[in-house]
């Protein structure tokens, strides 16, 4: 019996080694095989997801389009109004700056003339 058991054990060991030898180094295959499987799986998943999509009917699309156009028109009008307001304020600010510059230029001339007279009278007597 012992001999019979040993021979069965040897057979099992031999079968295991045989299976081990037939096993490829990488069970998933090389890089190209794995990439091919991944691409195939990706497109299979995409097909499954596309089947889940619920498309709106024409009436819903039309209403949504009208809402989008109305919101775009309102936002456009608001931006136009703010742009015009800032343009008017900027032109008023520019006019005020020019008026101050003109006034400053005329007073600078008077101040410069007075400074020259004071300088002459102080140093020249």
Key traits:
elongated; mainly alpha
What do these coordinates show?
This protein has 125 residues and is an all-alpha fold. It folds into two domains: 1-53, no CATH class; 56-125. 87% of the residues lie in helices and 0% in strands. It contains three helices and no strands. The chain has helices spanning 2-22, 31-51, 58-124. The longest helix has 67 residues, at 58-124. The model has no long low-confidence stretch (mean pLDDT 83).
Report the major sheet.
none
- Fraction in beta strands: under 5%
From N to C, what is the helix and strand string? HHH
Helix and strand composition category: mainly alpha
Overall mean confidence score, pLDDT: 83
Q: What's the total count of β strands?
A: 0
Taken from the alpha-carbon principal axes, the silhouette is elongated
Radius of gyration: 46 Å
- Distance from N terminus to C terminus (CA atoms, Å) equals 144 Å
Helix content: over 70%
Q: So how many helices?
A: 3
> Stretches where pLDDT falls below 50 for ≥5 residues?
none
Number of domains: 2
SSE arrangement:
Layout lengths: L1 H21 L8 H21 L6 H67 L1
Q: What is this entry, summarized?
A:
This protein has 125 residues and is mainly alpha-helical. Helix content is 87%, strand content 0%.
């Amino acid at each position: 019996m012992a001999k019979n058991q040993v021979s069965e054990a040897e057979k099992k060991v031999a079968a295991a080694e045989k299976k081990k030898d037939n096993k490829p180094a990488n069970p998933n295959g090389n890089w190209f095989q794995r990439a091919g499987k991944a691409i195939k799986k990706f497109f299979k998943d995409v097909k499954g997801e596309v089947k889940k999509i619920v498309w709106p009917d024409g009436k819903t699309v039309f209403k949504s389009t009208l809402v989008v156009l109305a919101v775009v028109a309102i936002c456009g009008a608001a931006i136009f109004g703010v742009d015009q307001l800032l343009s008017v304020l900027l032109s008023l600010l520019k006019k005020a700056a020019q008026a101050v510059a003109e006034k400053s230029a005329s007073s600078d001339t008077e101040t410069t003339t007075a400074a020259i007279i004071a300088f002459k009278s102080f140093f020249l007597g």
